[in-house]
Amino acid sequence: MRTTVGIIGAGPAGLLLARLLHNAGIDAVVLESRDRSYVERRQRAGILEQGTADVLRAAGAGERMDREGLRHDGIELRFDRRRHRVDFPALTGGRSVTVYAQTEVCKDLIALQLQDGGPLLFEAEALAVEDAGTDAPRIRFRHEGREDVLECAYVVGCDGFWGVARKAIPAGLARVFERTYPFGWLGVLADVPPSHDELVYARHDRGFALLSMRSPAVSRLYLQVPDGTDAGTWSDEEIWDELERRFETDDDWPLKRGPITQKSVTPMRSYVHEPMRHGRLFLAGDAAHIVPPTGAKGLNLAVGDVVTFARALTHQQETGSPELLDAYSATCLRRVWQAERFSNDMTALLHRAPAATAFEDRLQLARLERIASSRAAETDLAEAYTGFPFG
Questions:
Q1: Which residues share a beta bridge with 178?
Q2: What value does the mean pLDDT take over residues 213-241?
Q3: Please, which pLDDT band fits residue 128 given cuts at 50, 70 and 90?
Q4: Tens digit of pLDDT for each residue in 10-22?
Q5: H/E element, 180
Q6: 3-state DSSP assignment of residue 197
Q7: From the candidates 12, 297, 328, 351, which is the catalytic residue?
Q8: What gap in Å lies between CA 158 and CA 304, rounded to an integer?
Q9: What is the mean pLDDT of residues 238-243?
Q10: 157's torsion region: left (phi>0), alpha (psi -120 to 50) or beta?
Q11: Terminal Cα-to-Cα distance of the chain (whole angstroms)
């Protein structure tokens, strides 16, 4: 098989890239190791920045998002039994975010790709990227029980942290920056309408809590738990009781309870691989960087990567200049490091470290008080949360 761009991974990044290239008249093939059902059920992020939502609309993938997604014009911060709302449009010149699950983004993009895009091969396991440093890279993969080769002009690895793409970059060229946090998130899905119409980020002496949602009828909630926690050790009643404690306010705000349908624990880590390019191989999304979920940046960073690549390749095809492709890694990393900074800041602001002292507790409260009382500090948070510019 031959194509211009070989894309490894049919998550939202790989699928969106395929759509952007199709719209630009550039052929691509997408290889996905899992089956279609798995991809369309894989629970991940659910907050789309303003720029991400705009890109999906421009790509022709925004119709259902605009009909079923939930526009949010702010978030609520809770600390010291107080509530403070951050008004995004008022602080950012009109920007907002949209609650629309990654599973739904994938469904929309898969439908478009199968309808009029290039080949999308499910259960096609990428085994290796070969000759990445040459002008003729290849993806060796297994599909329908036999090995095959996809010959490409370019390869984009959207295959996550454990994928094969990053392994094709020589170790001597790589620099890795990472941090592991001493806690995780116990996340639950519950068949109950959200208890608030916007996300609630709560800082409490017992640990962080987050109230989110997947739809007007399904709540998504999180609790900070020690690293290595087994979700099965928490009963439903214990989870609801702890959520009530951490969301407590002086105005007796009520938390709605309902049947919990899913429990899992998400570890917290930060990771950046530099560079994000080697020869004709380009990394995107979790293949190159991971952020803790506190700032809702993971999916949005991946979108920024593929938008940057699609613009750069289109520019090269139209002008013959490789300038933007050559700048791909540096362009993406500027945005990546701002997102890493914001995600780390939000994590430090809202989570209680296992060995936190009374002094550190008071510093957290002072930082939150500053956001609640200073328009400048509040604007910095709102601008970062609604999204950094693409490229």
A1: 271
A2: 96
A3: very high
A4: 999 999 999 999 9
A5: strand 175-190
A6: coil
A7: 297
A8: 12
A9: 98
A10: beta
A11: 32
User: What is the pTM for the complete model shown?
Assistant: 0.95
190's CB contacts (< 8 A; 6+ apart) are: 218, 219, 220, 221, 257, 258, 259, 260, 261
Q: Identify the CA nearest to 149 among candidates 158, 137, 160.
A: 137
Structure tokens at 377: 């500090």
Task: State the chain's mean pLDDT as an integer.
Answer: 96
Question: Which residue among the candidates 201, 204, 289, 292 is catalytic per the annotation?
Answer: 201
To the query of whether residue 201 is one of the catalytic residues in this protein, the response is: yes
Q: How many beta carbons lie within 10 A of that of residue 12, not counting itself?
A: 31
Is 297 designated active site?
yes
154 belongs to the catalytic site: no
Beta strands in 74-172 (DSSP E): 74-79, 82-87, 97-99, 120-121, 124-130, 138-143, 146-157
Residue 45 has pLDDT above 80, yes or no: no
Percentage above 70 pLDDT, the chain? 100
Residue 321 tokens, joined: 């200049």
Specify whether the CB–CB gap between 372 and 77 falls below 8 A. yes
- Tell me the pLDDT band of 41, cut-offs 50, 70 and 90: confident
Q: Indicate which residue of 154, 222, 328, 385 is catalytic.
A: 385
* b/e map 124-163, b = 16+ CB within 10 Å: bbbeebebbeeeebbbebebeeeeeebebbbbbbbbbeeb
- What is the pLDDT at residue 351? 98
Q: Which two tokens stand for residue 313?
A: 């390749």
pLDDT band at 85 (very low <50, low <70, confident <90, very high): very high
Q: Which two tokens stand for residue 339?
A: 């997102």
Closest Cα to residue 201, out of 315, 12, 372?
A: 372
Give the integer Cα–Cα distance in Å for 141 and 157. 13
* Given the residues 12, 22, 72, 222, the one annotated as active site: 72
Q: Tell me how far apart the alpha carbons of residues 102 and 61 are, in angstroms, rounded to a whole number.
A: 13
Sheet holding 97-99, edge to edge: 47-48, 97-99, 70-72
| Distance, C-alpha 167 to centroid of its chain | 22
Evaluate the omega torsion of the peptide bond into residue 194 and state whether it is cis, within 30 degrees of 0: no
H-helix segments, 247-320: 298-319
Active-site choice (22, 278, 293, 328): 293
